[in-house]
Amino acid sequence: MVKPPHAVVRCFAAIALLLAASSVCAEGDGASAKLLRSTSDHTKFKVLQQDFASGPEVTRACLTCHTEAAKQLRLTQHWRWEYLNPDGRRLGKQNVINNFCTSVASNYAYCTTCHIGYGWRDASFDFNVDENVDCLVCHDTTGNYRKAPGFAGQVVTKDTEFPPGSGNLVKGVKLRPIAQEVAKTSRDTCGACHFYGGGGDGVKHGDLDSSLASPDRDLDVHMDALGNNFTCATCHMTQGHQVPGSRYAPTAVDRGSARLRGKHYKTNPTTCQACHGQTPHKPAVAKLNDHTDRIACQTCHVPAYARGGVATKTSWDWSTAGMMTADRKPMVRKDAKGRVVYTAAKGTFGLAENVIPEYVWFNGKVTYTLLGDRVEKGPLPTRISHFEGSADDGASMIWPVKVFRGKQAYDPVNKTLAVLHMAGTDDTAFWANFNWEKAVAVGMASVGAPFSGTVDFVETESMWPITHMVAPAKKALGCADCHAARGRLDKVSGVYIPGRPGDHAAWLELIGAALVVLALAGAAIHGVARLLASRRRKG
Amino acid sequence: MTNRMLHLVAISALGLGLQALDAQAAGSDWKRGRVYYQRVCTECHTAKAGGAIAPNGRTMAEWTAYLNADKHAKGKEPLKKYVSREYRASVKATNKAAEKYLEVPEDQLFEDIKAFMLKGAKDGDSPASCS
User: Fold this and answer.
1) A500-523: string of b/e by CB count within 10 Å (b at 16+)?
2) CB–CB of A144 and B6 under 8 A?
């Protein structure tokens, strides 16, 4: 055998070493990055090396290591869908009626698609069973975990025709690879529910939709996928699975300073002030810091919502639902952009992008119209949820809000909002038979509420805080957006805004002008007198 | 160093290198692929080629065939040209995704994009539109 020349071998070895080194570096971009994200490689856990037939099986496996996780979860609003308001009223999805799809009651199997649990099919759901907690819905990293409507939050693991006989196939989810890739939550996992509140992408909130899964800087300066790349949990700093920052417990005013690392706080970490403090603006624009005591940061820094190309619903008229085509099929209408603006199942929608918020004084208190509260049909809409506050209560700031206007079913005899049984394949479900009386009768019975048998429709309003989709400073509102005629804060009362026509006081301005003229005249007379006196002395 | 030792070093290093490359292929990052697809591919298609192409517009088999064929613009140029470092360098001044991912190995980035497209395909695990 001929030996290779020494130099060639050296050269070959050097190239091979370089290749290995470069590959290891390159790997640092993929595998090493993954290594740095977690101390655990879940693919190596024996308990996860199995094919799971159901969600609860996965949870049982998770709990073999994360022994206290389900107990933590069971203490959360995410689990209970219930919040005890300071006024003693029970809120949360379980209890409120909104003017989107209205209520969870009697529609559990569909609404609980977004519950962080398995099997909440009716009011008898057992909240004390650990294995009913759904770990994957928050900790999936593959983007492949999903729960189909109608299965009460259960994940479908085998291809299933649903509803039976419909020809519609729900694809089974392979749980093993998902369970082996779990990690911290992400915008995708939180967004799987929160982007789709109200029954579709961007429908409810307006400042939360699928465009925030991978946003650019203009859409959200914090979540910018190529920049800060914040996850939801970066601000909603979670401890023991308790996620702060719920809209049921809003912080309208935060007078605190920016948080220090390592220091423990009992206050809400999701406020802007929790990072930026009370004087966030640079010296060159320090005048803006004079606004921070009365104006929420979001008022200027979220100049519009639904900015990511996904329209949000602005109105919903249930009273028009139920229209059929000539061949007796449920009617569907779309607008010029191909967006659905009417369905027989849901009625008529208003849709909009780049929506300018409305502005209100907000002190953190929200009043609700709940089931059983008296509702009067009159010239003003019923306030389903309303932000309280005023200029002179010493506890309010001016906030941007989405006001969602609806027209929804109520009982005109008992004068209460109606619980609708909408979803399902049974004869009483509105989406199956389009009969209001049947749907409301079953819905009201499900919560033990009286129903007269008559259905009418009442105009309603709900308020939603606008706080996501924070634009870069250069795209925030400028002075002239408010300090001008017909500015953003034109309808906000109780505050003096220079430049706003309504804030002019003619008599005060006359006095001011007179003082200016007198001052100038006095200075002129004084100057002339000094000049004359000087000449006289010289003369 | 003797020839024998050099041989050993060379073979070990090559093995290590190939192993690392395998690991890269296995560890694709679909989220990075999504960003590149949206910010580079889609932006250019929207501006210059008549509109965006959603992953859920094709099946996994169709996307696999398209990606394996490595043909862009009806075969006038290789698809991988638009994932190459040279291309990223050429547009980095105006494209933040190209700038941020400039140092990502071409094969790795291609696998990332592929992972996003296949999972987002019409019959993929998570069909995806352009948003």
Assistant:
1) beeeeeeeeeeeeeeeeeeeeeee
2) no
